[in-house]
Amino acid sequence: MSDMFPDIHDTPASEADIRAALRQAADLAARYLATRGEYPVIPNIAPGDVAAALPDAPPEVPETLEAVLGDYRRLIEPNVTHWNHPGFLAYFAITGSTAGVMGETLSAALKSNAMLWKSGPAPTELEERVCDWLRQMVSLPTGFVGHINDTASIATMLALAAARERAFPSIRQDGMSGRTDLPRMTVYASEQAHSSVDKAMVALGLGLAQLRRIPTDDAFRAKPDALREMIAADRAAGMRPIAVVATLGTTSTTSVDPAADMAVVARESGAWLHVDAAYAGPAAISPALRPLMRGWELADSIVLNPHKWMFTPVDCSVTLVRDVETWKRAFSITPEYLRTDVGAATNLMDYGVQLGRRFRALKLWMVIRAYGVSGLRTHIERHCALARELGEWIDGDDRFERVAPTPFSLVCFRALPQDANATATEIDALNERMLARINTDGAVFLSHTKLNGRFTLRVAIGNQHTNRATIENAWTIIRCAYDEVAGA
Ligand SMILES: Cc1ncc(COP(=O)(O)O)c(C=O)c1O
To answer: Is the bond preceding residue 12 a cis peptide, omega within 30 degrees?
Structure first.
């Protein structure tokens, strides 16, 4: 076996050599996935530890398979944060799946690059079909056309570029700098919207100063009346509202903006409505949860991330667009070397900035087929039920308080000190210490946010292997941490 790797590097390698090498990688992946709960969720290492163990320079000569895979096992696998661990309850807890790994592996083998239909016929058509499957699964109407990006952050930036294209088509040719004939272009998103909206403002040259933060109600939802007033004031001041972003499932709390009301305001003002449903969008696979999305069918574009709550390995983010012509006008440029003779086929390079694109549809197709819509629905509903149950435990314990509603599978809460006169700073400090204590345990990993300026703990449930025992254990660890930190 020690000469296997040089054989692989030689051309052509035999099928037996390729199989033997890939089998070893598959064995490692299978063992890792089967023992996913055995590592501490977060590795106990410091910044620079991994780099210090890596050679400074690349190898001049081919290395053996044993050497490379041995180093993978020794240096890489134990030193990742284990997103596939059932106790990973941080950020938006997400997990891959066997089907997703298969799709990822096979797409790497094909190394397809579907920038044009001609450069990737099956990948192009599968991407269109699988996005339409997802549209049907979440019960959105026909008329939305889907494509896949790496992340929701990119999708949101593209959506704002499309909004700008619709408002001022001349920008495509003439740009924005140095022009006195353009008004300031404003974009509206709730104060709970994801930072990807801010990043898009920066990247597109719209400027953070033109991002209007819609105030939220006591459940962290954008107030549509405030949106209407802000738009009216900006219009009166000569500005041009180009886009409204509604978030269905915000990052800090999973609050749900009133998309239907925001759609009315967006339409009145001629602004593009982009719906960020990166995390919660797949929840609409469940008829019970679907009503929370009311109004998203009125959007101009919607982003949902199968790599968050649909067991698809990172990266895979689906964008559904209604006004495809405007969207494509914002990006399409066809140099001579990319011109083809295939007529009306879709060329996915027209849907964004990147030319080369990974074959992400393959893993999503395999995941949907492996679970079936019913399987995905069952997991999503199960996660929400676990979150509700944890919420009830928290509500029933006067050492803790829940600080946001739990519409999906995220629970936001904080610990309360025994001293009823504790200051806000002291309460925040207690919760920060608790988080650190909880996460040193190794069995679970929680993250935090700030709500109304106050430190808040988050338990996010989204891993297919997270079950009631995991959440019971997390609750025990949380209460033990309280006893240690609050000194009960
Ligand atoms: C609501 C929301 N939008 C967008 C994003 C960004 O997602 P991505 O990592 O795919 O860019 C996140 C990430 O958690 C999110 O919660």
So the answer is: yes
Q: Which of 373, 482, 380, 369 is nearest to 434 (CA)?
A: 482
Protein residue closest via CA to atom 13 of ligand 1 = 251
Report which ligand 1 atom has the smallest distance to the Cα of 91: 14
Domain at 68, CATH number: 1.20.1340.10
Looking at the fold, whether 151 and 300 belong to one and the same domain comes out as: yes
What is the domain extent for residue 209?
Answer: 113-358
3-state DSSP assignment of residue 101: helix
Probe ligand 1: pick from 247, 276, 293, max atoms within 8 Å of CB? Answer: 276
Q: Which two tokens stand for residue 149?
A: 């990006």
62-119 pLDDT tens trace:
898 899 999 999 999 999 999 999 999 999 988 889 999 999 999 999 999 999 999 9
Is 337 catalytic? The answer is: yes
Q: Could you report the per-residue pLDDT of 161-178, keeping only the tens digit for each?
A: 999 999 999 999 999 999
| Residues 263, 295 contacting (CB under 8 angstroms) | yes
277 with 131, same domain: the answer is yes
Q: Please give the model's pTM, rounded to 2 decimal places.
A: 0.95
Same domain flag for 337 and 385: no
How far does residue 324's CA lie from ligand 1's centre (Å)? 23
